[in-house]
Amino acid sequence: MTTYSYDDDSVVVIIGSGAGGGTLANELCQKGIPVVLLEAGQRQSQATFINDEWPSFEQLSWSDTRTTSGSWQVAQDFPTLPAWICKTVGGTTTHWAGASLRFREHEFRARETYGEVKHANLLDWPLTLAELEPYYARAETKLGVTRTNDIPGLPGNNNFKVMYNGATKLGYKECSTGHMAINSRARDGRAQCMQLGFCFQGCKMGAKWSTLYTEIPAAEATGKLELRVEAHVVRIEHDAKGRASAVVYANAKGELQRQKARLVAVAGNAIETPRLLLNSATAMFPHGLGNGAGMVGKHYMRHTTGSVFAEFKEPVHFYRGNIMAGIISDEAHNNPERGFVGGYEMETISLGPSFMAAFFKPGAWGRDFSSVMDKYTHLAGMWLVGEDMPRETNRITLSETKDRFGLPVANVHYDDHPNDIAMREHAYTQGAAIYDAVGALRTHRVPPYPSTHNMGTCRMSRKAADGVCNAYGQSHEVPNLFISDGSQFTTSAAENPTLTIVSLAIRQAEYIVQSLKANAA
Amino acid sequence: MSDLKVSRRRFLHASGGLLLGTLMFTSGPIALMAPSQSWALEMHTLSSPLGSQLLLMIRRIYPHDTMEDAVYAFAVKALDERAAKDPSVTPLLLKGFAQLDQKSTAGWIKLTEAEQVRLLVEIQDSEFFKLVKGAAVNALYSNELAYKHFGYEGASFPKGGYLMRGFDDLQWLPAPPAVASPAAFS
Description:
The complex is a heterodimer of chains A (521) and B (186). Chain A is 25% helix and 16% strand. The longest helix of chain A is centred in the C-terminal third of the chain and has 20 residues, at 498-517. In chain A, strands 4-11-12-13-10-16 form a six-stranded antiparallel β-sheet, with helices on one face. Chain A has a five-stranded parallel β-sheet with strand order 5-2-1-9-17, covered by helices on one side. The two termini of chain A are 28 Å apart. Chain A is of the alpha/beta class and 521 residues long. Chain B contains eight helices and two strands; from the N terminus they run αβαβαααααα. Chain B has helices spanning 8-15, 29-33, 48-61, 69-85, 89-102, 113-122, 127-140, 144-150; strands spanning 18-22, 38-42. Chain B has a two-stranded antiparallel sheet. In chain B, α3 (48-61) crosses α4 and α4 (69-85) packs across α7 (127-140). Chain B is elongated. Classes of the chains: A alpha/beta (521), B mainly alpha (186).
């Protein structure tokens, strides 16, 4: 097993082992670059994953305290759990459902396409779809995305049958089992999906792509990777020239360690990444590392979401098989005539009784609530996911509350924009119409869950004053500091973020390799 | 070994209460898999009367008429575990039921279901109510008996998933075309 000394300042230190960090680590190791990968959580495996919602949640989730504020309903329903993301090797790629969609061309030009939207801070990406396409293609090959590379689509389950029939009756044309990073056939040393119905709990088949059992072991096989688990980073240090020089973390025993670094890449998800930069403030960077423009933590996006569940006379058993078993993309286009800019996707979702009870209508009790639970086997469900507006007032800041190391935890502030509210209303209405079209007895609007899609808090921008990093995720201010997760996103687009995070990481790795050779980072 | 002469019941009485019950629905999904028609829950901290009151209160909060008390007992167990860890829990529960009892002459437990619920609505913002509801929502719906009750099949990996066990067995709607939903095997 490869190990590097704490004083080895030739290593690239990557913080976080999920879609961004895990992919970047492997891409760099494949090019012979020494990498220390720091992961706050423990290492699980297909053998240790648990087919039971709450025990699995305890095993995989990031449950360290966070605080919330703002008018979003999550702050009311889950005040200390704004996000549903993971603290484990593989990060949230253990929990994600596998939906792997490319962003649309116009979504890289949101400001230009939508025009000025009041009380939003829209910006075009410093990157076009055409520039990202080759990397999307490489990411799709890496992940084994269905309906790419001649990989067949997944077979649709009962929940999909209900969605498909309703969608067709409404005249929707773009409904299928979608583009999924779940093996419809055995591929790349991983098994075919057996429709377990526990995508969110870590795939015990390994049929769903996760950096845990793809990128990370591949990187380890190069002899260039040292993965340190239960390594919770507390700050990034810099030298007298203002270059990142070391990463300080607490190990499993709570002892602080300092790992020197040639270059630092942060991929702690869009809440912890800005928190870490803000907690790394010094005399030279009084507002946080790389925060000269004051943009770190701003423009937090979490997608406009909600779910529609419907009760039917006949059974559905929606928990059987893929969680995101199918998708409708007809509403994902930009059509301002609907009363909002941007679009949304509709994706099937199912929950076990444990999570249904917790998330269906948080806080509700009595017969209205329990009568829905009584129909559990007769429910169908879909999740609505759409582009939300970046706002500088929606942001991650340092809270008054401190963690076990005495550091301020992240406060997550979010107010729904009028555009978000109009989109959610439209999506709820369409979702219910789909189920009504196939004879739903009752439909239910389910409020947003804690955020799994977290984006935008260290956004890419052409001008240094507008964001935190450039089109390669490189800090505008600290040339050897990179942002490698969804924090980079300039806007959220309507699509699930993982495929774009992976594509950006592949592209960033190429740039880092070149920069290290040219001594330009 | 004269210690063994101390009856199990007496031992339990000394350390905490006991909830006893009989399955109500003899042909229900739980009775069909249960080894016995009677069940017992040993509590470490809470007394038997407090356990019974809690069980009824949780049944009123999350009413499932055909759900066995044995399932509700899981939620009582969760509160008993909390009480064992946190000494402020038992006094809060006792005070909560005392306040509920004060709201009627007969005592809350003797009221009709509608009256019981009406009084619970009055106190739904209290710490007492939130504690019971919060513990119950996670425990009541997250155990094997509840899964059986609702018809949820639980862990699927040990059974090989649902690919061969009904993931697409819905018959009351037409099957989507292969272009939207390809076959699992070519």
